[in-house]
Amino acid sequence: MSENNSHQIGNLKQALVAGACAGTAVDTALFPLDTIKTRLQSQQGFLASGGFRGVYSGLLTAVIGSAPGASLFFVTYEATKRLMGATIDNAQYAPLIHMAAASCGETVACTVRVPTEVIKQRMQTKQFTKTSAAVSHVLRTEGVLGMYRGFLSTVAREIPFTCIQFPLYEYFKRTYATIKGRRTEPYEAALMGSLAGAIAAAATTPLDVCKTRIMLSTKNQSTKHYDGIISTMKRIAAEEGPRALFSGIGPRVMWISIGGSIFLGVYEKALKTFVQLRVLDERF
Fold first, then answer.
1. Helix crossing, 131-142 with 94-124: angle to 10°?
2. How many Å apart are CA 248 and CA 22, to the nearest integer?
3. Which of 103, 104, 255, 284 is deepest in the core (most CB within 10 A)?
4. Are 59 and 113 in contact (CB under 8 A)?
């Protein structure tokens, strides 16, 4: 792959640790915005879900899932990108390679992300006040599959999001590197990640609203139960109007814009530090 600025890393250990640092940093720093976004998207409404009170409810669950989820994403992303790049050495296919690599990364990461997201969102909307109570209730009433409620809708949200964000991010970096004649600095990558994330966040808000409704509903809710992203989207549009599909777009764009800056900035900084100090430099 003839791209100067695609981190000539080849070291998945570095990607794993850098991803863990990035995921934990952004989820911890911006958790209140995520809570507000979730409450705006919930069916019971913002105030009934807690308003501005207890905006750190579910933080522990989010932190537990942050490091492994982000690590899985970046390891899969870098490995897939490297494998496909070695096979398809043509710059014109770079966006497709980034889309495919990011989609694989998101799908793998969701195996860890979804269970923690289910518990986190139910705590954010005041269904539960303790993580242990939320986990035991889901397992008791819905079984292990209940922990993966909304898995497909999450993947259906993440893949379009990442297919917009990462090609844009890589394009911005590549173009900037060509103009400047050097690799991008971490702070520059952070700004590019912020812009790419904001665009992707706005475009995929309806999918995020549907994902939130599905995760928050339970099978014993006969009238409020949501199941399936297409049927959920149709129902929201019919019952609440098309505008409801963009509920929480402000906090979502802000969260992902700032989060993208922190996430990709920390990731790039960690990688640069590892390379300079030759930390985790064994290749595999």
1. 100
2. 24
3. 255
4. no
Backbone angles phi, psi at 111, to 5 degrees: -65, -25
Count of residues in the chain: 284
Amino acid at the residue 64: I
Domain boundaries of the chain, sorted by first residue: 12-277
Give the pLDDT confidence of 91-115 residue by residue, as tens digits: 778 888 888 998 999 999 999 999 9
> How far apart are alpha carbons 197 and 162 in whole angstroms?
9
Residue in the structure block whose two tokens are 């915005």: 33
Q: What's the sign of the alpha-carbon dihedral 243, 238, 34, 265?
A: negative
Looking at the domain 12-277, which fold is it?
Answer: Mitochondrial carrier fold (1.50.40)
Q: 5 pLDDT band (50/70/90 cuts)? A: very low
Is there a contact between 184 and 177 (Cβ–Cβ < 8 Å)? yes
Record the pTM. 0.78
**Which of left, alpha, beta for 10 (phi over 0: left; psi -120 to 50: alpha)?**
left
Helices 205-216, 151-180: crossing angle, 10 deg rounding: 150
The chain-wide mean pLDDT, for the chain, equals: 85
